[in-house]
Structure formats: structure tokens, C-alpha cells
Write a structure and sequence with these properties.
Length: 429
């Protein structure tokens, strides 16, 4: 089978090998010798946006049961094989990706990879296993419903992405939907959305790249399915005014605030400017300007931070804070004040320089493990950033000017158009 390959030869950097199988599956390989272990990361472009309109949470449930048997292995067979090697599998679902990640000894790489590939391609989804995992998911949803931080964040996403938008639906779904899902529905979801052209296999660790690539080809090369049609994703409508939602949870001790906006796409040229702006606002040191003002100087918050998540479409800028109920109104007002000051006065040259140094300087530490490298490579592949992105990223950050940062702040931040959710022991005055 012919492979299209590219291998960036550079004096430093990750320099992964990328290969594309004839069926569309992508291989990413990086040989490291730090430990005699290998991380396997299989990412399928079949995240929660692929949930049917009437079945939010279907992908999450599928991810909980996909390891409970294949057409040739029982759940017990799989459990024994993993236990005998001291391996645990981690499944995760984001808006766009369902991923399987595990780390094994280098000597166990081939059988573990073959097992992981079998689970991804040929899950049997036994009825009894579905029933068990349904119970676990329902318990998790009930825990979320009793958690002010989760309630605030999920409700904020629904305000930012209303009317059933895939970004605004709860990833785990609802109890009613989960309990109604059938084996046939989950098998159909797998048949509709899992295909080789949607798969990226990243192998990082103490295994020669050519050997890893050959194994990916043997495991997935014979898989033949057309790519599914992309899920249509509308850009979120621009907010014309401030929205506020209070979720009284009077039996709790702490109130959680989620405050946010929709921002830009990951492909937007202003991405790096937004990243630096967010670092100044709520990530750098003990939480940037927000942490310095609300937690350190005013002593109102148990925690406060911001996170920017540009994505395939315009992603959110989310500010989260845990507050004593007595300080909720003051804390919201302080967030408004900090954002207004950021827009009106801008970021300072020192703040920009500090944030740039922090983001560039922290990158080597963020790539110290095989699993971290695999995650980085998967992210770069998903957004089409190239195999040399780790080398280009510092220069992209250095190229951002003060005007770039302040322009994107004015573009995405306006407290008059913010969505604000308050969950906990609080009621409107």
C-alpha cells in the first residue's frame, strides 16, 4: 500500500513524521528515548457535535462502552489483557473529537495497539455493558446537576450557543436521553461517524517510527469506509445585549460565576493576539488581572481565571469564579470593571512582554511527556497547523504587536453584550 509521507528535517523541535494512508487515515510518529514506554493516541473526528439532534449525549455514552467488547473479544478478554499489562485506557469526548489514549511499555506496544484499533473499528456494544454504563453516566449527570460550577458553565454555553447549537448542548446529555438510547442507536452512530478518513493515530515513545507506521498500516490499512458528510456548524449569532441567568442552589456553600463571550475561529489571524490577551486577563501568574484584582487585592474569590477556546467556529472566552454568596454582585461588577479597563486602556507593553515570555518559556515544560507530545501533535493535525508548529509558534507570538492585542480585545470584549450565569446560594436582589 502506498503512503504519502513527509518528514521535516530540522536541527531542533519535535520533527514528527506524518504519513497518510490510502484510506485517509493519518499517522503521526515521534521516537523518544526518555523512558521505555509508548503513548498511543487515537483521535476520531466524531465528537459531541455528531450527536443526533434528539440525542445529545449519545457520543459520550458510546465512548463509555466502546471498550466493553469487540466482534472478536469479550469485555472480560479485554480487561484481562489490559490488567495483565498494567494498562488503563482513557477515553475523552470533546466537541469535535472522540479519543482513546493509553501508555504502555515499549515491549507491549504491538498487542496493545492492535487491541485499541480493534475497539475503535469493531465495538460489539453488549446490551448488559450498555445498561451498566448508562447507570454510571446517569450518576455523573446527577453529580453535575448538583455542582454549581458545572451548572454555571453548561448554562453559559447554552446562552452563547442557543437553539440546540451543537456547542451549546451538554456533552453528557440528559438523564432522559441517556436512558432512552438503544444499542441499535449507538451502533448506527458508530457506523455513521467512524471512518478511516476521520482518524489520526499519534504514536510517541520508545518505538522506531517506521515500525509504528507499519503497524498503523496493518491495523487500519484495510478499513474501507467513505468519509461522512461534515456536521453543519453555524456561526453563533452576535449578542445584542447582556444576558443574565441565576440558578438558585440554596443548599451550597459557594456560588460559581460563569461569564463569557463568543470570540473568533482558531483559523483567524488574530488567534495569537487573543491568546496573549487572555493570558494577561486571566491566566498569567495567579490569574492575570482578574486574579490580582478580585482574589488577591479584594479577597473576594476562592478562584478566578479566564480561558479562550477558538475552535472550528467562533469559540468562547469563558471567565469562571468561585465566590462567597455575599460577594457575588461585587465580583460581577469587578469583572465588568476589569474588562472595561482592558478595552479602554489596553494591555501594557510590560504585560505583553511578560505573557509572551511566559507562553514561549512554558512550552518545553508542556512537552516533557510522551502523552503531552501526542496531544500537541493531535491538536496541530486537527487544525492543520503543520508538523513544524512547535518551531513556528514562538515566532508567531513574537510577531504579535501591542496594537494587535488591543485590537482583538476591542473586537471580542464588551460587558454590555456579556452572558453571565450565577449558580449557588444566591437569589436576585
Amino acid at each position: 500500500m502506498r503512503l504519502e509521507t513527509s518528514n521535516l528535517r530540522v536541527p531542533s523541535g519535535l520533527a514528527p513524521v506524518r504519513a497518510k494512508l490510502e484510506n485517509g487515515a493519518v499517522f503521526l510518529g515521534k521516537h523518544t528515548r526518555t523512558t521505555p514506554a509508548v503513548t498511543i493516541s487515537l483521535a476520531m473526528r466524531a465528537g459531541s457535535i455528531c450527536d443526533p439532534d434528539d440525542a445529545a449525549g449519545a457520543t459520550w455514552l458510546l465512548s463509555r462502552v466502546i471498550d466493553r467488547g469487540t466482534t472478536t473479544r469479550s469485555a472480560l478478554d479485554i480487561a484481562d489483557e489490559l490488567d495483565n499489562r498494567g494498562i488503563s485506557l482513557n477515553f475523552a469526548v470533546t466537541r469535535h473529537i472522540l479519543s482513546l489514549v493509553c501508555t504502555c511499555l515499549a515491549e507491549d506496544f504491538e498487542p496493545v495497539f492492535s487491541l485499541a484499533a480493534d475497539m475503535l473499528m469493531h465495538p460489539s456494544l453488549p446490551e448488559d455493558e450498555i445498561a451498566t454504563r448508562k447507570g454510571e453516566v446517569v450518576t455523573a449527570i446527577r453529580q453535575d446537576e448538583d455542582n454549581p460550577a458545572v451548572r454555571a458553565t453548561e448554562s453559559l454555553m447554552t446562552l452563547l450557543y442557543p437553539d440546540g447549537h451543537p456547542y451549546g448542548r451538554p456533552t453528557k446529555g440528559t438523564i432522559e436521553v441517556v436512558e432512552s438510547l438503544t444499542r441499535e442507536r449507538l451502533l448506527q452512530l458508530h457506523a455513521d461517524r467512524f471512518a478511516p478518513g476521520e482518524l489520526t493515530a499519534a504514536i510517541v515513545g520508545d518505538v522506531e517510527v517506521n515500525r509504528a507506521r507499519d503497524l498503523v498500516e496493518r491495523a487500519f490499512g484495510g478499513w474501507r469506509k467513505p468519509r461522512p458528510a461534515p456536521v453543519p456548524l453555524a456561526a453563533p449569532a452576535s449578542s445584542r445585549g447582556r444576558r443574565r441567568l441565576v440558578i438558585p442552589m440554596m443548599n451550597k456553600a459557594q456560588t460559581d460565576i460563569a461569564y463569557g463571550f463568543t470570540t473568533i475561529r482558531r483559523a483567524d489571524p488574530a488567534y495569537d493576539a487573543l491568546r496573549l490577551m487572555n493570558n494577561v486577563l486571566g491566566q498569567y501568574a495567579l490569574g492575570g488581572r482578574l486574579g490580582d484584582s478580585i482574589r488577591e487585592r479584594q479577597g473576594m474569590a476562592y478562584y478566578v481565571s479566564s480561558a479562550a477556546d477558538p475552535n472550528v467556529i467562533e469559540g468562547p472566552l469563558l471567565i469562571r469564579a468561585g465566590i462567597s454568596p455575599a460577594n457575588v454582585d461585587r465580583a460581577v461588577a469587578s469583572i465588568d470593571e476589569e474588562l472595561t479597563r482592558l478595552v479602554q486602556d489596553g494591555v501594557t507593553a510590560k504585560e505583553l512582554d511578560d505573557s509572551r515570555r511566559y507562553l514561549i518559556g512554558s512550552m518545553p515544560r508542556a512537552l516533557e511527556t510522551n502523552a503531552a507530545i501526542a496531544t500537541f501533535l493531535q491538536n496541530a493535525e486537527f487544525f492543520g497547523l503543520g508538523t513544524d508548529y512547535d518551531l513556528r509558534m514562538p515566532e508567531l507570538l513574537r510577531a504579535v504587536t501591542l496594537d494587535d492585542v488591543n485590537t482583538v480585545a476591542r473586537r471580542v470584549i464588551d460587558p454590555a453584550r456579556a452572558a453571565v450565569v450565577i449558580a449557588g446560594p444566591y437569589q436576585e436582589p
